[in-house]
Protein backbone atom coordinates (compact mmCIF):
# COMPACT_ATOMS: atom_id res chain seq x y z
CA UNK A 1 0.00 0.00 0.00
CA UNK A 2 2.78 2.40 0.95
CA UNK A 3 4.55 1.63 -2.34
CA UNK A 4 1.40 2.55 -4.30
CA UNK A 5 1.00 5.75 -2.29
CA UNK A 6 4.61 6.62 -3.04
CA UNK A 7 4.11 5.96 -6.76
CA UNK A 8 0.91 8.04 -6.85
CA UNK A 9 2.62 10.90 -4.99
CA UNK A 10 5.56 10.71 -7.38
CA UNK A 11 3.30 10.83 -10.41
CA UNK A 12 1.47 13.81 -8.89
CA UNK A 13 4.64 15.89 -8.55
CA UNK A 14 6.26 14.62 -11.76
CA UNK A 15 4.76 17.34 -14.01
CA UNK A 16 6.01 20.01 -11.60
CA UNK A 17 9.50 18.47 -11.47
CA UNK A 18 9.70 18.17 -15.26
CA UNK A 19 8.45 21.73 -15.69
CA UNK A 20 11.07 22.95 -13.20
CA UNK A 21 13.98 20.97 -14.67
CA UNK A 22 13.20 22.08 -18.21
CA UNK A 23 12.69 25.71 -17.19
CA UNK A 24 15.34 27.66 -19.14
CA UNK A 25 15.76 29.96 -16.12
CA UNK A 26 16.13 27.16 -13.56
CA UNK A 27 19.88 27.66 -13.17
CA UNK A 28 19.47 31.41 -12.65
CA UNK A 29 16.71 30.71 -10.11
CA UNK A 30 19.02 28.40 -8.15
CA UNK A 31 21.85 30.94 -8.32
CA UNK A 32 19.58 33.65 -6.88
CA UNK A 33 18.37 31.40 -4.05
CA UNK A 34 21.98 30.45 -3.26
CA UNK A 35 22.96 34.15 -3.06
CA UNK A 36 19.97 34.90 -0.83
CA UNK A 37 20.83 32.04 1.55
CA UNK A 38 24.49 33.06 1.59
CA UNK A 39 23.44 36.61 2.39
CA UNK A 40 21.21 35.39 5.20
CA UNK A 41 24.09 33.43 6.75
CA UNK A 42 26.31 36.51 6.61
CA UNK A 43 23.60 38.57 8.28
CA UNK A 44 23.46 36.12 11.15
CA UNK A 45 27.21 36.50 11.61
CA UNK A 46 26.82 40.28 11.73
CA UNK A 47 24.07 39.97 14.36
CA UNK A 48 26.19 37.69 16.53
CA UNK A 49 28.99 40.22 16.35
CA UNK A 50 26.70 43.16 17.08
CA UNK A 51 22.88 42.95 17.51
CA UNK A 52 22.64 46.37 15.91
CA UNK A 53 25.10 46.32 13.04
CA UNK A 54 24.65 49.40 10.87
CA UNK A 55 26.00 50.56 7.53
CA UNK A 56 28.31 52.86 9.51
CA UNK A 57 29.72 49.85 11.38
CA UNK A 58 30.23 48.15 8.04
CA UNK A 59 32.11 51.20 6.71
CA UNK A 60 34.37 51.33 9.79
CA UNK A 61 35.13 47.62 9.46
CA UNK A 62 36.01 48.13 5.79
CA UNK A 63 38.35 50.98 6.74
CA UNK A 64 40.21 48.59 9.05
CA UNK A 65 40.37 45.81 6.43
CA UNK A 66 41.40 47.91 3.42
CA UNK A 67 42.26 51.46 4.51
CA UNK A 68 44.15 52.37 1.35
CA UNK A 69 41.70 51.01 -1.20
CA UNK A 70 40.10 53.74 -3.30
CA UNK A 71 36.53 54.42 -2.19
CA UNK A 72 35.67 57.39 -4.42
CA UNK A 73 36.90 58.56 -7.84
CA UNK A 74 35.66 62.05 -8.74
CA UNK A 75 36.77 64.44 -11.48
CA UNK A 76 40.39 63.31 -11.51
CA UNK A 77 40.78 62.90 -7.75
CA UNK A 78 40.68 59.74 -5.66
CA UNK A 79 39.82 59.25 -2.00
CA UNK A 80 40.67 56.07 -0.10
CA UNK A 81 38.47 54.52 2.56
CA UNK A 82 40.76 55.85 5.33
CA UNK A 83 40.76 59.34 3.81
CA UNK A 84 36.97 59.44 3.69
CA UNK A 85 36.87 58.13 7.28
CA UNK A 86 39.23 60.85 8.51
CA UNK A 87 37.37 63.55 6.60
CA UNK A 88 34.07 62.40 8.14
CA UNK A 89 35.70 62.63 11.58
CA UNK A 90 36.64 66.25 10.87
CA UNK A 91 33.09 67.01 9.72
CA UNK A 92 31.60 65.41 12.83
CA UNK A 93 33.90 67.32 15.17
CA UNK A 94 33.27 70.66 13.41
CA UNK A 95 29.50 70.17 13.57
CA UNK A 96 29.60 69.03 17.18
CA UNK A 97 31.61 72.08 18.21
CA UNK A 98 30.24 74.86 16.01
CA UNK A 99 26.69 73.68 15.31
CA UNK A 100 26.15 71.99 18.67
CA UNK A 101 24.85 68.86 16.96
CA UNK A 102 24.01 65.85 19.06
CA UNK A 103 22.41 62.43 18.82
CA UNK A 104 18.85 62.57 17.53
CA UNK A 105 19.17 65.81 15.55
CA UNK A 106 18.26 65.95 11.86
CA UNK A 107 20.38 67.64 9.21
CA UNK A 108 19.27 68.38 5.65
CA UNK A 109 21.78 68.13 2.80
CA UNK A 110 21.12 70.46 -0.12
CA UNK A 111 23.95 69.76 -2.52
CA UNK A 112 24.87 67.93 -5.71
CA UNK A 113 26.96 64.83 -6.31
CA UNK A 114 30.47 65.26 -4.92
CA UNK A 115 32.72 63.32 -2.50
CA UNK A 116 31.84 65.58 0.44
CA UNK A 117 28.28 64.25 0.23
CA UNK A 118 29.60 60.90 1.45
CA UNK A 119 31.79 62.14 4.29
CA UNK A 120 29.26 64.68 5.54
CA UNK A 121 26.63 61.91 5.78
CA UNK A 122 29.12 59.59 7.51
CA UNK A 123 30.15 62.38 9.89
CA UNK A 124 26.50 62.96 10.81
CA UNK A 125 26.00 59.23 11.33
CA UNK A 126 28.94 59.19 13.74
CA UNK A 127 27.12 61.84 15.81
CA UNK A 128 23.88 59.84 15.76
CA UNK A 129 22.11 62.34 13.49
CA UNK A 130 19.58 61.58 10.78
CA UNK A 131 20.13 63.07 7.32
CA UNK A 132 17.45 64.49 5.03
CA UNK A 133 18.47 64.22 1.38
CA UNK A 134 17.04 67.24 -0.43
CA UNK A 135 16.52 67.46 -4.16
CA UNK A 136 18.61 70.52 -5.05
CA UNK A 137 16.22 71.38 -7.92
CA UNK A 138 13.39 72.39 -5.57
CA UNK A 139 12.64 75.97 -4.61
CA UNK A 140 10.63 78.21 -2.27
CA UNK A 141 7.41 76.54 -1.02
CA UNK A 142 8.62 73.00 -1.71
CA UNK A 143 11.97 73.68 -0.07
CA UNK A 144 10.36 75.01 3.09
CA UNK A 145 7.99 72.05 3.16
CA UNK A 146 10.95 69.65 3.11
CA UNK A 147 12.31 71.14 6.33
CA UNK A 148 8.98 70.89 8.12
CA UNK A 149 8.68 67.24 7.03
CA UNK A 150 11.84 66.36 8.93
CA UNK A 151 10.13 67.03 12.24
CA UNK A 152 10.83 69.26 15.16
CA UNK A 153 14.26 67.71 15.66
CA UNK A 154 15.69 69.45 12.59
CA UNK A 155 18.74 71.26 13.86
CA UNK A 156 20.97 72.29 10.99
CA UNK A 157 20.82 72.46 7.23
CA UNK A 158 23.59 72.35 4.65
CA UNK A 159 22.42 74.59 1.87
CA UNK A 160 24.93 75.25 -0.86
CA UNK A 161 22.86 77.10 -3.43
CA UNK A 162 21.51 80.60 -3.91
CA UNK A 163 17.91 79.32 -3.72
CA UNK A 164 18.27 79.28 0.07
CA UNK A 165 18.28 83.07 0.25
CA UNK A 166 14.62 83.10 -0.83
CA UNK A 167 13.52 81.12 2.21
CA UNK A 168 16.14 82.25 4.73
CA UNK A 169 13.81 84.53 6.74
CA UNK A 170 11.32 81.70 7.21
CA UNK A 171 14.09 79.27 8.18
CA UNK A 172 15.26 81.72 10.84
CA UNK A 173 11.72 81.96 12.21
CA UNK A 174 11.58 78.17 12.45
CA UNK A 175 14.85 78.08 14.36
CA UNK A 176 16.72 76.26 11.61
CA UNK A 177 20.44 77.00 11.39
CA UNK A 178 21.98 77.25 7.92
CA UNK A 179 25.57 76.29 7.15
CA UNK A 180 27.42 76.62 3.86
CA UNK A 181 30.33 74.50 2.68
CA UNK A 182 32.49 77.52 1.96
CA UNK A 183 35.33 79.50 3.52
CA UNK A 184 33.17 82.62 3.66
CA UNK A 185 29.65 83.84 2.93
CA UNK A 186 28.37 87.38 2.53
CA UNK A 187 24.75 86.53 3.36
CA UNK A 188 23.78 87.27 6.93
CA UNK A 189 22.34 84.20 8.60
CA UNK A 190 24.28 81.64 6.53
CA UNK A 191 27.32 80.34 8.38
CA UNK A 192 30.45 79.24 6.45
CA UNK A 193 31.75 75.90 7.71
CA UNK A 194 34.66 74.80 5.53
CA UNK A 195 37.36 76.47 7.63
CA UNK A 196 36.08 74.81 10.81
CA UNK A 197 36.18 71.41 9.07
CA UNK A 198 39.73 72.02 7.82
CA UNK A 199 40.96 72.91 11.33
CA UNK A 200 39.18 70.03 13.10
CA UNK A 201 40.97 66.89 14.27
CA UNK A 202 40.59 63.73 12.17
CA UNK A 203 40.89 61.35 15.13
CA UNK A 204 38.03 58.83 15.62
CA UNK A 205 34.99 59.80 17.66
CA UNK A 206 33.59 57.78 20.53
CA UNK A 207 30.72 55.43 19.68
CA UNK A 208 29.08 56.69 22.90
CA UNK A 209 27.95 59.74 20.91
CA UNK A 210 25.42 57.48 19.17
CA UNK A 211 24.86 54.98 21.99
CA UNK A 212 21.06 55.24 21.89
CA UNK A 213 20.68 54.71 18.13
CA UNK A 214 18.90 51.44 17.31
CA UNK A 215 17.87 49.60 14.16
CA UNK A 216 14.51 51.40 14.32
CA UNK A 217 16.00 54.89 14.64
CA UNK A 218 15.63 57.31 11.70
CA UNK A 219 18.69 57.27 9.46
CA UNK A 220 17.49 59.17 6.41
CA UNK A 221 14.60 61.16 5.05
CA UNK A 222 14.28 60.63 1.30
CA UNK A 223 11.67 62.69 -0.51
CA UNK A 224 9.33 60.73 -2.71
CA UNK A 225 6.38 61.29 -5.03
CA UNK A 226 6.76 64.96 -5.13
CA UNK A 227 10.16 66.25 -5.91
CA UNK A 228 7.58 68.61 -7.32
CA UNK A 229 5.19 70.77 -5.32
CA UNK A 230 5.00 69.41 -1.79
CA UNK A 231 7.17 66.30 -1.40
CA UNK A 232 6.62 63.51 1.10
CA UNK A 233 9.54 62.57 3.34
CA UNK A 234 9.89 58.79 3.50
CA UNK A 235 11.37 57.90 6.87
CA UNK A 236 14.18 55.40 6.28
CA UNK A 237 15.32 53.56 9.41
CA UNK A 238 18.83 52.32 10.14
CA UNK A 239 17.59 48.78 9.49
CA UNK A 240 16.14 49.79 6.11
CA UNK A 241 19.42 51.39 5.00
CA UNK A 242 21.27 48.21 5.91
CA UNK A 243 18.74 46.06 4.04
CA UNK A 244 18.82 48.24 0.91
CA UNK A 245 22.60 47.96 0.77
CA UNK A 246 22.25 44.23 -0.07
CA UNK A 247 20.74 44.86 -3.51
CA UNK A 248 24.21 44.92 -5.03
CA UNK A 249 25.01 41.57 -3.40
CA UNK A 250 21.92 39.79 -4.76
CA UNK A 251 22.64 41.35 -8.17
CA UNK A 252 25.98 39.56 -8.25
CA UNK A 253 28.32 42.43 -7.37
CA UNK A 254 31.55 41.30 -5.69
CA UNK A 255 34.31 43.04 -3.74
CA UNK A 256 36.39 43.29 -6.92
CA UNK A 257 33.87 45.38 -8.86
CA UNK A 258 33.96 49.10 -9.67
CA UNK A 259 30.57 50.85 -9.41
CA UNK A 260 29.56 53.89 -11.50
CA UNK A 261 27.14 56.39 -9.90
CA UNK A 262 25.79 59.17 -12.10
CA UNK A 263 22.30 59.31 -10.61
CA UNK A 264 21.56 61.97 -7.96
CA UNK A 265 22.61 61.02 -4.45
CA UNK A 266 19.40 62.54 -3.10
CA UNK A 267 17.58 59.61 -4.76
CA UNK A 268 17.31 56.21 -3.12
CA UNK A 269 18.79 54.63 -6.26
CA UNK A 270 22.00 56.64 -6.11
CA UNK A 271 22.32 56.75 -2.34
CA UNK A 272 20.95 53.44 -1.05
CA UNK A 273 21.63 51.07 -3.94
CA UNK A 274 24.74 52.87 -5.13
CA UNK A 275 26.62 54.43 -2.22
CA UNK A 276 25.60 52.25 0.74
CA UNK A 277 25.66 49.16 -1.49
CA UNK A 278 29.26 49.97 -2.38
CA UNK A 279 30.14 50.24 1.31
CA UNK A 280 28.55 46.84 2.02
CA UNK A 281 30.59 45.32 -0.83
CA UNK A 282 33.75 47.27 0.06
CA UNK A 283 34.22 48.44 -3.52
CA UNK A 284 35.34 51.50 -5.46
CA UNK A 285 32.79 54.08 -6.66
CA UNK A 286 33.24 56.30 -9.69
CA UNK A 287 31.08 59.33 -8.90
CA UNK A 288 29.88 61.86 -11.46
CA UNK A 289 27.99 65.13 -10.89
CA UNK A 290 25.29 64.14 -13.36
CA UNK A 291 24.62 61.70 -16.16
CA UNK A 292 26.31 62.37 -19.50
CA UNK A 293 25.52 60.08 -22.44
CA UNK A 294 28.52 61.35 -24.43
CA UNK A 295 30.98 60.70 -21.58
CA UNK A 296 29.41 57.53 -20.16
CA UNK A 297 31.42 54.81 -21.91
CA UNK A 298 34.60 56.90 -21.86
CA UNK A 299 34.29 57.05 -18.05
CA UNK A 300 33.65 53.31 -17.91
CA UNK A 301 36.75 52.52 -19.96
CA UNK A 302 38.93 55.03 -18.11
CA UNK A 303 38.07 53.71 -14.64
CA UNK A 304 37.49 50.03 -15.50
CA UNK A 305 33.85 50.25 -14.42
CA UNK A 306 32.19 46.85 -14.09
CA UNK A 307 28.76 47.81 -12.64
CA UNK A 308 26.54 50.66 -13.83
CA UNK A 309 23.26 52.18 -12.69
CA UNK A 310 20.45 53.34 -14.92
CA UNK A 311 16.90 54.54 -15.15
CA UNK A 312 14.85 53.98 -18.27
CA UNK A 313 15.64 57.40 -19.69
CA UNK A 314 19.42 57.15 -19.25
CA UNK A 315 19.53 53.80 -21.05
CA UNK A 316 17.51 55.33 -23.90
CA UNK A 317 19.92 58.27 -24.05
CA UNK A 318 22.84 55.85 -24.40
CA UNK A 319 21.06 54.07 -27.25
CA UNK A 320 20.47 57.42 -28.97
CA UNK A 321 24.19 58.27 -29.12
CA UNK A 322 25.99 57.91 -32.49
CA UNK A 323 27.26 54.37 -33.09
CA UNK A 324 30.99 53.72 -32.71
CA UNK A 325 33.27 50.78 -33.45
CA UNK A 326 34.43 50.55 -29.82
CA UNK A 327 30.98 50.31 -28.23
CA UNK A 328 31.63 46.86 -26.75
CA UNK A 329 35.12 47.79 -25.62
CA UNK A 330 34.41 48.05 -21.89
CA UNK A 331 34.30 45.89 -18.74
CA UNK A 332 30.72 46.59 -17.62
CA UNK A 333 29.07 43.27 -16.75
CA UNK A 334 26.07 44.30 -14.59
CA UNK A 335 23.50 47.12 -14.94
CA UNK A 336 21.18 47.83 -11.99
CA UNK A 337 18.16 50.08 -12.36
CA UNK A 338 14.52 50.40 -13.25
CA UNK A 339 12.05 51.72 -15.80
CA UNK A 340 13.56 50.54 -19.09
CA UNK A 341 11.29 49.52 -21.99
CA UNK A 342 11.76 46.10 -23.58
CA UNK A 343 12.76 47.54 -26.96
CA UNK A 344 15.39 49.81 -25.41
CA UNK A 345 16.61 46.91 -23.25
CA UNK A 346 17.08 44.74 -26.35
CA UNK A 347 18.78 47.52 -28.32
CA UNK A 348 21.09 48.24 -25.38
CA UNK A 349 22.27 44.62 -25.23
CA UNK A 350 22.71 44.40 -29.00
CA UNK A 351 24.81 47.54 -29.11
CA UNK A 352 26.85 47.38 -25.92
CA UNK A 353 27.30 43.67 -25.32
CA UNK A 354 26.36 40.90 -22.91
CA UNK A 355 25.51 42.88 -19.79
CA UNK A 356 23.34 41.36 -17.04
CA UNK A 357 20.49 43.86 -16.67
CA UNK A 358 19.07 43.70 -13.14
CA UNK A 359 15.76 45.52 -13.55
CA UNK A 360 14.23 46.45 -10.19
CA UNK A 361 10.84 47.28 -8.83
CA UNK A 362 10.87 49.08 -5.48
CA UNK A 363 9.71 52.18 -3.64
CA UNK A 364 11.71 54.12 -1.07
CA UNK A 365 8.94 53.90 1.51
CA UNK A 366 7.56 50.52 0.38
CA UNK A 367 7.83 47.11 2.00
CA UNK A 368 7.90 44.98 -1.14
CA UNK A 369 10.22 44.92 -4.12
CA UNK A 370 11.42 42.69 -6.95
CA UNK A 371 14.61 42.18 -8.90
CA UNK A 372 15.02 40.43 -12.22
CA UNK A 373 17.77 37.93 -11.49
CA UNK A 374 17.19 36.16 -14.85
CA UNK A 375 18.06 37.06 -18.44
CA UNK A 376 14.37 37.51 -19.33
CA UNK A 377 13.85 40.88 -21.02
CA UNK A 378 10.96 43.15 -20.00
CA UNK A 379 10.27 41.89 -16.47
CA UNK A 380 11.06 43.22 -12.99
CA UNK A 381 11.35 39.88 -11.25
CA UNK A 382 9.85 36.46 -10.73
CA UNK A 383 7.58 34.93 -8.12
CA UNK A 384 9.89 33.03 -5.79
CA UNK A 385 8.75 30.92 -2.83
CA UNK A 386 11.57 32.15 -0.59
CA UNK A 387 10.93 35.82 -1.40
CA UNK A 388 7.16 35.49 -1.01
CA UNK A 389 7.50 33.74 2.35
CA UNK A 390 9.82 36.44 3.67
CA UNK A 391 7.82 39.36 2.24
CA UNK A 392 4.15 38.41 1.71
CA UNK A 393 2.40 40.23 -1.12
CA UNK A 394 -0.44 39.84 -3.58
CA UNK A 395 -2.00 41.50 -6.62
CA UNK A 396 -5.62 42.61 -6.24
CA UNK A 397 -8.22 43.76 -8.74
CA UNK A 398 -8.36 47.54 -9.08
CA UNK A 399 -11.01 49.90 -10.46
CA UNK A 400 -9.06 52.44 -12.54
CA UNK A 401 -12.03 54.78 -12.90
CA UNK A 402 -12.84 54.92 -9.18
CA UNK A 403 -9.15 54.58 -8.22
CA UNK A 404 -9.88 52.00 -5.53
CA UNK A 405 -9.59 48.21 -5.06
CA UNK A 406 -12.54 46.01 -6.03
CA UNK A 407 -14.11 44.17 -3.08
CA UNK A 408 -16.43 41.17 -2.81
CA UNK A 409 -19.68 40.87 -0.85
CA UNK A 410 -17.67 40.23 2.34
CA UNK A 411 -15.80 43.49 1.93
CA UNK A 412 -12.50 41.77 1.11
CA UNK A 413 -10.28 42.51 -1.87
CA UNK A 414 -10.34 40.21 -4.89
CA UNK A 415 -7.04 38.69 -5.99
CA UNK A 416 -6.05 39.21 -9.62
CA UNK A 417 -5.71 36.11 -11.75
CA UNK A 418 -2.60 34.99 -13.64
CA UNK A 419 -1.99 37.32 -16.57
CA UNK A 420 -4.28 40.02 -15.17
CA UNK A 421 -2.95 43.40 -14.09
CA UNK A 422 -3.57 44.07 -10.41
CA UNK A 423 -2.64 46.50 -7.66
CA UNK A 424 0.46 45.32 -5.82
CA UNK A 425 0.06 45.31 -2.03
CA UNK A 426 2.62 44.12 0.52
CA UNK A 427 1.60 42.73 3.90
CA UNK A 428 2.82 44.87 6.78
CA UNK A 429 4.71 42.62 9.20
CA UNK A 430 7.64 42.87 11.59
CA UNK A 431 9.95 41.69 8.81
CA UNK A 432 8.35 43.94 6.17
CA UNK A 433 7.21 47.11 7.97
CA UNK A 434 5.85 50.33 6.54
CA UNK A 435 7.17 53.20 8.64
CA UNK A 436 5.42 55.94 6.67
CA UNK A 437 6.08 59.59 5.94
CA UNK A 438 7.58 62.01 8.43
CA UNK A 439 5.16 64.69 9.58
CA UNK A 440 2.36 63.45 7.33
CA UNK A 441 -0.01 61.06 9.08
CA UNK A 442 -2.68 61.60 6.45
CA UNK A 443 -0.49 60.41 3.57
CA UNK A 444 0.85 57.56 5.70
CA UNK A 445 -2.66 56.33 6.43
CA UNK A 446 -3.59 56.67 2.76
CA UNK A 447 -0.95 54.06 1.94
CA UNK A 448 -2.35 51.53 4.42
CA UNK A 449 -4.95 49.11 3.08
CA UNK A 450 -7.06 47.12 5.52
CA UNK A 451 -9.17 43.96 5.19
CA UNK A 452 -7.37 42.78 2.07
CA UNK A 453 -7.53 38.97 2.24
CA UNK A 454 -9.09 38.65 5.68
CA UNK A 455 -10.67 40.92 8.24
CA UNK A 456 -8.14 42.85 10.29
CA UNK A 457 -5.09 42.36 8.06
CA UNK A 458 -2.98 45.33 6.99
CA UNK A 459 -1.14 45.90 3.70
CA UNK A 460 0.97 48.60 2.07
CA UNK A 461 -0.65 50.03 -1.05
CA UNK A 462 2.11 50.54 -3.63
CA UNK A 463 -0.15 52.46 -5.99
CA UNK A 464 1.28 50.43 -8.88
CA UNK A 465 -0.29 47.93 -11.25
CA UNK A 466 1.76 44.80 -11.96
CA UNK A 467 1.08 41.52 -13.73
CA UNK A 468 2.26 37.95 -13.12
CA UNK A 469 2.37 35.82 -16.27
CA UNK A 470 2.05 32.06 -16.71
CA UNK A 471 5.79 31.59 -16.14
CA UNK A 472 5.55 33.54 -12.87
CA UNK A 473 7.45 36.52 -14.24
CA UNK A 474 6.44 39.88 -12.79
CA UNK A 475 5.84 42.78 -15.16
CA UNK A 476 5.31 46.41 -14.27
CA UNK A 477 2.18 47.80 -15.95
CA UNK A 478 1.45 51.34 -14.80
CA UNK A 479 1.05 53.78 -11.93
CA UNK A 480 -2.33 54.65 -10.51
CA UNK A 481 -3.54 57.65 -8.59
CA UNK A 482 -1.97 61.06 -8.55
CA UNK A 483 1.60 60.30 -9.53
CA UNK A 484 3.38 59.66 -12.81
CA UNK A 485 7.05 59.40 -13.72
CA UNK A 486 9.01 61.53 -16.18
CA UNK A 487 12.77 61.90 -16.71
CA UNK A 488 13.30 59.41 -13.89
CA UNK A 489 11.43 61.63 -11.40
CA UNK A 490 8.10 61.12 -9.68
CA UNK A 491 5.64 63.93 -10.38
CA UNK A 492 2.70 64.43 -8.00
CA UNK A 493 -0.20 65.79 -10.04
CA UNK A 494 -2.05 67.42 -7.14
CA UNK A 495 0.92 69.60 -6.23
CA UNK A 496 1.44 70.65 -9.87
CA UNK A 497 -2.26 71.54 -10.04
CA UNK A 498 -1.87 73.71 -6.94
CA UNK A 499 0.92 75.65 -8.65
CA UNK A 500 -1.15 76.14 -11.82
CA UNK A 501 -4.20 77.46 -9.96
CA UNK A 502 -2.02 80.21 -8.53
CA UNK A 503 -1.99 81.72 -12.04
CA UNK A 504 -4.45 84.63 -12.16
CA UNK A 505 -6.40 83.38 -15.19
CA UNK A 506 -6.68 79.69 -14.17
CA UNK A 507 -9.65 78.65 -12.03
CA UNK A 508 -9.07 74.88 -11.91
CA UNK A 509 -6.42 72.44 -13.14
CA UNK A 510 -6.49 68.69 -13.73
CA UNK A 511 -2.94 67.36 -14.15
CA UNK A 512 -2.00 63.98 -15.62
CA UNK A 513 0.74 62.23 -17.52
CA UNK A 514 0.55 61.26 -21.20
CA UNK A 515 2.65 58.91 -23.31
CA UNK A 516 5.05 60.31 -25.91
CA UNK A 517 6.26 58.07 -28.72
CA UNK A 518 9.82 56.87 -28.10
CA UNK A 519 10.04 58.17 -24.53
CA UNK A 520 9.97 56.45 -21.16
CA UNK A 521 7.30 57.29 -18.62
CA UNK A 522 4.68 60.00 -19.09
CA UNK A 523 5.12 63.70 -19.72
CA UNK A 524 3.10 66.29 -17.82
CA UNK A 525 -0.11 67.68 -19.26
CA UNK A 526 -2.84 69.76 -17.67
CA UNK A 527 -6.45 70.42 -18.54
CA UNK A 528 -7.31 73.85 -17.18
CA UNK A 529 -10.50 75.82 -16.74
CA UNK A 530 -10.03 79.55 -17.36
CA UNK A 531 -11.84 82.00 -15.12
CA UNK A 532 -14.94 83.59 -16.62
CA UNK A 533 -14.20 86.78 -18.54
CA UNK A 534 -10.48 86.03 -18.82
CA UNK A 535 -8.22 84.45 -21.42
CA UNK A 536 -5.47 81.90 -20.95
CA UNK A 537 -2.17 83.74 -20.37
CA UNK A 538 0.67 81.57 -21.69
CA UNK A 539 3.45 83.88 -20.51
CA UNK A 540 2.29 84.17 -16.89
CA UNK A 541 1.60 80.43 -16.76
CA UNK A 542 5.14 79.74 -17.98
CA UNK A 543 6.54 82.16 -15.40
CA UNK A 544 4.59 80.42 -12.62
CA UNK A 545 5.67 76.87 -13.42
CA UNK A 546 9.27 77.92 -14.14
CA UNK A 547 9.46 79.66 -10.75
CA UNK A 548 7.97 76.89 -8.64
CA UNK A 549 8.58 73.60 -10.45
CA UNK A 550 11.68 71.75 -11.66
CA UNK A 551 11.88 71.38 -15.45
CA UNK A 552 10.75 67.73 -15.44
CA UNK A 553 7.56 68.61 -13.51
CA UNK A 554 6.37 71.49 -15.65
CA UNK A 555 3.35 70.56 -17.78
CA UNK A 556 4.55 70.60 -21.38
CA UNK A 557 0.99 70.61 -22.71
CA UNK A 558 -2.07 72.63 -21.65
CA UNK A 559 -5.63 71.77 -22.70
CA UNK A 560 -8.31 74.44 -22.23
CA UNK A 561 -11.69 73.09 -21.13
CA UNK A 562 -14.91 74.91 -20.28
CA UNK A 563 -15.79 72.30 -17.62
CA UNK A 564 -14.38 69.14 -16.09
CA UNK A 565 -15.98 65.69 -16.11
CA UNK A 566 -16.35 64.53 -12.50
CA UNK A 567 -16.81 61.17 -10.79
CA UNK A 568 -19.67 60.38 -8.44
CA UNK A 569 -17.42 61.34 -5.55
CA UNK A 570 -16.55 64.69 -7.18
CA UNK A 571 -13.09 63.72 -8.34
CA UNK A 572 -11.81 64.97 -11.69
CA UNK A 573 -11.84 62.21 -14.30
CA UNK A 574 -8.53 61.62 -16.07
CA UNK A 575 -8.87 58.35 -17.96
CA UNK A 576 -10.33 59.87 -21.14
CA UNK A 577 -7.92 62.81 -21.02
CA UNK A 578 -4.96 60.46 -20.76
CA UNK A 579 -6.23 58.36 -23.67
CA UNK A 580 -6.80 61.39 -25.91
CA UNK A 581 -3.32 62.78 -25.26
CA UNK A 582 -2.13 65.92 -27.04
CA UNK A 583 -2.84 65.27 -30.72
CA UNK A 584 -4.44 68.49 -32.08
CA UNK A 585 -6.14 66.49 -34.83
CA UNK A 586 -7.96 64.34 -32.26
CA UNK A 587 -8.61 66.93 -29.54
CA UNK A 588 -11.17 69.63 -30.21
CA UNK A 589 -10.21 71.78 -27.21
CA UNK A 590 -7.49 74.45 -27.62
CA UNK A 591 -4.04 72.99 -26.92
CA UNK A 592 -0.84 74.78 -25.92
CA UNK A 593 2.81 73.71 -25.82
CA UNK A 594 5.48 74.97 -23.42
CA UNK A 595 8.19 76.65 -25.49
CA UNK A 596 11.28 77.20 -23.28
CA UNK A 597 12.97 79.43 -25.88
CA UNK A 598 10.01 81.83 -26.06
CA UNK A 599 9.31 81.48 -22.33
CA UNK A 600 5.60 81.03 -22.88
CA UNK A 601 2.96 78.48 -23.84
CA UNK A 602 2.31 78.65 -27.60
CA UNK A 603 -0.64 77.14 -29.54
CA UNK A 604 0.07 73.46 -30.28
CA UNK A 605 -0.05 73.15 -34.06
CA UNK A 606 0.06 70.07 -36.29
CA UNK A 607 3.60 71.09 -37.23
CA UNK A 608 4.75 71.16 -33.58
CA UNK A 609 2.99 67.85 -32.92
CA UNK A 610 4.75 66.25 -35.89
CA UNK A 611 8.14 67.64 -34.79
CA UNK A 612 7.66 66.12 -31.32
CA UNK A 613 6.92 62.69 -32.79
CA UNK A 614 9.92 62.85 -35.13
CA UNK A 615 12.04 64.09 -32.19
CA UNK A 616 12.98 67.31 -33.96
CA UNK A 617 11.70 68.98 -30.81
CA UNK A 618 13.49 67.66 -27.73
CA UNK A 619 11.37 67.06 -24.63
From TrEMBL:
Coiled-coil stretches noted in the UniProt entry, renumbered to this chain: none
GO-annotated molecular function: long-chain fatty acid transmembrane transporter activity; long-chain fatty acid-CoA ligase activity; nucleotide binding
Pfam families registered for this protein in UniProt: AMP-binding, AMP-binding_C
Claim: Transmembrane is one of the keywords in the record: yes
Catalytic activity as recorded in UniProt: a very long-chain fatty acid + ATP + CoA = a very long-chain fatty acyl-CoA + AMP + diphosphate; tetracosanoate + ATP + CoA = tetracosanoyl-CoA + AMP + diphosphate; a long-chain fatty acid + ATP + CoA = a long-chain fatty acyl-CoA + AMP + diphosphate
Membrane association type: Multi-pass membrane protein
Keywords for the protein's UniProt record, in alphabetical order: Cell membrane, Fatty acid metabolism, Ligase, Lipid metabolism, Lipid transport, Membrane, Nucleotide-binding, Transmembrane, Transmembrane helix, Transport
Subcellular location per the Swiss-Prot or TrEMBL entry: Cell membrane
SUPFAM superfamilies, sorted: Acetyl-CoA synthetase-like
Family: Belongs to the ATP-dependent AMP-binding enzyme family.
Name of the featured protein: long-chain-fatty-acid--CoA ligase
Record organism: Hucho hucho
Amino acid sequence: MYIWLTIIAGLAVLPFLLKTLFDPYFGQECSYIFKAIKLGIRLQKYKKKNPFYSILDCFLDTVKKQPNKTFLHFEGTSHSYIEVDKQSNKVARALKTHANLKEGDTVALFMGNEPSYAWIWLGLAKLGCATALLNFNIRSKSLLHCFSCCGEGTKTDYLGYIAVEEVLPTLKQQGISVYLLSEECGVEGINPLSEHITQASDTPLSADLRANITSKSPALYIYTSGTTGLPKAALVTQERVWTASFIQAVSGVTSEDVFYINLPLYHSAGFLIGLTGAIERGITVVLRRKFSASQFWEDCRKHNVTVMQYIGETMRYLCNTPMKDIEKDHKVRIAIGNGVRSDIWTEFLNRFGDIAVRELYAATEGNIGFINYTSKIGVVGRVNFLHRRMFPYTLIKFDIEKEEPLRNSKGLCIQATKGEAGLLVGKITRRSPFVGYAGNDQQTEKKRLRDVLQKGDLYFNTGDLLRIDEQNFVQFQDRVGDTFRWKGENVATTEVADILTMVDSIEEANVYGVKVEGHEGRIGMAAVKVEEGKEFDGASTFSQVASYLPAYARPRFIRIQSSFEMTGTFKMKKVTLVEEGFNPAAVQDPLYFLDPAKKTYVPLTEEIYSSINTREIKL
